[in-house]
From TrEMBL:
Biological source species: Scleroderma citrinum Foug A
Keyword line: Autophagy, Cytoplasm, Endosome, Lipid-binding, Membrane, Transport
Name by which UniProt lists this protein: Sorting nexin-4
Single GO biological process annotation from the record: endocytic recycling
Residue ranges occupied by any PX domain in the UniProt entry: 55-177
TM stretches of this protein: none
């Protein structure tokens, strides 16, 4: 007989039209989280298709209030994981973590993997911190569910699931020591301020646009915009449905009270009317139960998916910024090269053919007023410009390589996000459908029991 944990883990699967896991059925045993179907397995993998090396299944449960009755009280959560990834020391791990540990994990994953779509954490809910309700069972359960969904999204990511930071988060018994070590000695070298960083404040405008946009990313952005608009519209619609359901809950309760009062007045049909009143009360309770167990979780998941999509949008914006860096640096290199050629033409006596513009003319006049228009000064300027041109050429090459690599990684991230979105939409809509079916089945049973009783009512006129 399976335990509760095994039931939860085995229900976590990732199904999509194309196999998201790179599984060798002959060499690797199948397990939870793997797509068991071989459909599409013989299709060649593209250069931007993600590749999974195994599964990582996580669950966040059992919130406990630690250091109760003290000013340092906090809530810890039990994080359990099962995996077959080779970087983990055991196939099953468990550890207790608090919310600040999740914050540390998320912040450093964003810093260490800037091209990956790292999901956002739930809000701080400052009002609960002020009123003290953050230790209420309802708040802790809601927070647990949001953290569980956050960790699930990271565990499904083929790159993030193999990060050393996530491995330490899941299995380290000295997590606080590891956090200090990670801050003091990050996994990659700290980037030194380069020419691009020095120029970014003056060259790169927050409102600048990419001059040569890639059609692939334009289409991605349009798809993300349509998806976000659909989520916002759906959230607004279901909030209205929730409000109407609450109104119906109240109306059916009031109708039940009225029917019960009518039973006291009509002594001949008191018993049938009481049964009818009880059915109305039960139907009102079913409405309330559906709102709490189906509609509210659906709205929470919908909002969470919207924040996940916003994280994906941020990666697309960062990719545009990388391309913008390359374009701005290329333009700056062209301007410096033209200035160097102009000075060379002036020294050689061919200034008229150097394309002298208004800015260069004014610059020469200012240099003449300062007494810096002699050939010696021009030669010194040319020497400095040659050094700057060499630095800019290296910076442009690095920016081009960075932009291309970031674009390739972004294409891969979009595939991963598409898999995650499809899996979550299927889970979310399945839960919604199950809740609606359960509500209507229970309502039909209640009304079918009361209909024969109502039909037996006979009133003499």
């Amino acid at each position: 007989m399976q335990t509760e944990d095994e039931d939860v883990f085995d229900s976590v699967t990732w199904e999509s039209a194309s196999a998201p896991y790179d599984v060798d059925h002959a060499g690797k045993p199948a397990g939870p989280g793997f797509k068991q179907s071989t459909a599409g397995a013989e299709e060649p993998q593209g250069p931007h298709d993600p590749k999974w090396e195994g599964y990582l299944l996580t669950i966040v449960k059992d919130p406990v209030k630690e250091l109760a009755e003290t000013k340092d009280a906090y809530v810890s959560y039990l994080v359990v994981a099962r995996t077959n990834l080779p970087i983990f020391s055991a196939q099953s791990t468990s550890a207790r973590r608090r919310f600040q540990d999740f914050v540390f994990l998320r912040d450093h994953l964003v810093r260490d993997f800037p091209a990956c779509v790292v999901p956002a954490l739930p809000d701080k809910h400052r009002l609960e911190y002020i009123t003290g309700d953050r230790f209420s069972p309802e708040f802790m359960e809601r927070r647990r569910l949001e953290l569980h969904r956050f960790l699930q999204r990271i565990s499904r990511h083929p790159t993030l699931q193999r990060s050393t930071l996530l491995r330490a988060f899941l299995e380290s018994t000295e997590w606080h020591v590891y956090m200090h070590q990670h801050v003091a000695h990050p996994p990659g070298p700290e980037p030194t301020p380069g020419l691009l960083d020095n120029l970014s404040d003056t060259l790169l405008n927050a409102f600048a646009r990419v001059r040569k946009p890639d059609d692939r990313f334009l289409e991605m952005r349009e798809n993300v915009d349509r998806f976000d608009d659909g989520l916002v519209l759906c959230e607004r619609l279901w909030n209205r449905i929730r409000g109407r359901a609450n109104d119906l809950t109240t109306d059916y309760h009031d109708l039940a009270v009225a029917a019960q009062g009518l039973g006291f007045l009509e002594s001949g049909i008191t018993d049938p009317l009481n049964h009818f009143s009880n059915t109305l009360l039960e139907f009102s309770a079913l409405f309330r139960h559906k709102t709490q167990t189906t509609t509210d979780p659906f709205l929470v998941h919908l909002h969470s998916l919207l924040t996940y999509s916003n994280a994906n949008r941020s990666v697309l914006k960062l990719r545009d910024q990388k391309q913008l860096d390359f374009e701005e640096l290329s333009d700056y290199l062209s301007g410096v090269t033209l200035e160097r050629d102009r000075l060379s033409a002036v020294i050689s006596g061919h200034a008229g053919g150097s394309g002298l513009g208004l800015s260069a003319y004014l610059k020469d006049k200012v240099d003449a007023m300062r007494g810096a228009d002699d050939d010696r000064s021009r030669v010194e300027k040319m020497r400095k410009l040659d050094v700057k041109i060499k630095e800019l050429q290296d910076a442009v090459t690095a920016a081009h390589d960075t932009s291309d690599a970031f674009s390739d990684e972004t294409l891969r991230e979009q595939r991963i996000f598409q898999y995650a979105k499809e899996a979550e939409m299927k889970e979310m809509l399945s839960n919604l459908a199950d809740g609606e079916v359960e509500f209507y089945q229970s309502a039909m049973e209640e009304w079918e029991r009361i209909i024969p009783i109502i039909q037996r009512i006979r009133v003499d006129v």
